[in-house]
Backbone:
């Protein structure tokens, strides 16, 4: 791990407004000292100039496109005729995940390419792993949660650099496993590597650090949840979904408004923040920190397909080790009931063996009302759990968490996911 202590730099009037003096109402612990051997810059003169010290931010690198080297990509001129100059991975590689990636090199790349980061915080980088995000799952989520749990008292905010493909799963997992963490944890990444001229990584990093440290400058908006910052919006982590593989605004939140929009200024939606939710943005709600660092990965998502016979297609899932099903029904909770494609008999056989079933919808938004339909009502009678709709990514992780913690109700919100 390597630390970077920010030097004092001149700021424009606009940046000064964003980075105003710390509010006396915001408690602050002394910044952690780092050993000289682990720092790659001189100590900030802030402590000797009479200024309040900058907040400390730990950047945890897990992999993804942001930190890739350009060697992982074909030269644009070779692709000009076929994809209009877009830059893509060399065929068959899926990118470059250098096993020897070191925090010092990564941090130097960050502060050289994005020097503005130094005006917001004292940064420290830890390379926890360096993986394609399709290789990140429950084991890695537990590892990230353990790292955050261990370092919670050492830093003011945390940034997770992550690949985009499973970013919504990871954001959901961290929000649920670290319920009540009460410090900013923001997941971000990019569609193009930081080293490329048109990369979105630079702006995503600036936006992420801006939001992570917003509690230490006017107007003192303190984020106390896991969020996802990408393409100029800050989203609640367990409500986010990846909606595009190619555009920079790659994520959306179909069931919950953005926490903030970042343009010339930062437009916060105060009443959407977790600590003010359901209070019209007025009353502060303190949530107890309840880390839950276990997951049962034996969960599957099953969309109901017209004409599909579940007995033939899925068979006895419980006998094969599956313990939880996120069943994606039609509309508000409907499913086929014909003899040829009867889902109820199959669900009954699985429930009798102990399968946990969460009933959700294939729609991106709206309310669930399975009781309005015959099959939906029967599914509820069998013991399927339904309620306010979670995203499919969040539903999968919540089911993993509830299987590992049997006393935790599936339909009970713990991190603003419902």
Residues:
């Amino acid at each position: 791990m390597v630390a970077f202590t920010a030097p004092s730099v001149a700021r424009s009037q606009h940046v000064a407004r964003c980075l105003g003096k710390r509010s006396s109402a915001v408690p602050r612990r002394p910044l952690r000292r780092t050993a000289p051997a682990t720092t790659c810059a001189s100590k900030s003169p802030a402590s000797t100039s009479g200024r309040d010290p900058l907040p400390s931010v730990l950047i945890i690198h897990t992999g993804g496109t942001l930190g890739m080297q350009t060697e992982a990509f074909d030269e644009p001129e070779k692709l000009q005729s076929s994809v209009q100059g877009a830059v893509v991975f060399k065929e068959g590689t899926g990118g470059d995940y250098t096993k020897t990636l070191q925090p010092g090199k990564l941090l130097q790349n960050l502060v050289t390419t994005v020097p503005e980061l130094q005006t917001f915080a004292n940064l420290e980088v830890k390379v926890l792993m360096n993986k394609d995000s399709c290789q990140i799952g429950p084991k890695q989520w537990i590892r990230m949660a353990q790292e955050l749990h261990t370092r919670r008292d050492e830093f003011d905010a945390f940034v997770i650099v992550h690949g985009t493909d499973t970013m919504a799963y990871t954001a959901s997992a961290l929000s649920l496993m670290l319920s009540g963490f009460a410090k900013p944890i923001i997941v971000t990444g990019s569609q193009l590597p930081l080293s490329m001229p048109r990369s979105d990584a630079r702006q995503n990093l600036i936006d992420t650090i801006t939001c992570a440290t917003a509690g230490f400058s006017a107007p003192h908006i303190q984020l106390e949840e896991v969020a996802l910052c990408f393409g100029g919006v800050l989203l609640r982590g367990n409500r986010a979904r990846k909606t595009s593989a190619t555009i920079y605004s790659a994520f959306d939140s179909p069931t919950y408004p953005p926490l903030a929009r970042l343009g010339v200024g930062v437009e916060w939606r105060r009443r959407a923040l977790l600590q003010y939710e359901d209070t019209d943005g007025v009353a502060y709600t303190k949530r107890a920190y309840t880390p839950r660092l276990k997951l049962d990965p034996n969960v599957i998502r099953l969309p109901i397909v017209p004409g599909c016979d579940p007995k033939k297609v899925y068979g006895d899932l419980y006998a094969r080790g599956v313990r939880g099903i996120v069943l994606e029904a039609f509309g508000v909770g409907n499913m086929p009931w014909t003899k040829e494609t009867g889902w109820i008999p199959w669900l009954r056989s699985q429930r009798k063996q102990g399968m946990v079933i969460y009933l959700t919808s294939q729609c991106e938004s709206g309310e669930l009302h399975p009781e309005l339909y015959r099959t939906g009502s029967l599914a509820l009678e069998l013991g399927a759990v339904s309620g306010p709709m979670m995203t499919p990514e969040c539903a999968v992780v919540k089911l993993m968490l509830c299987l590992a913690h049997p006393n935790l109700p599936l339909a009970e919100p713990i991190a603003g996911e419902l």
Summary: The chain is about 25% helix and 15% strand. Residues 138-151 form the longest helix (14 residues). The mean pLDDT is 81.
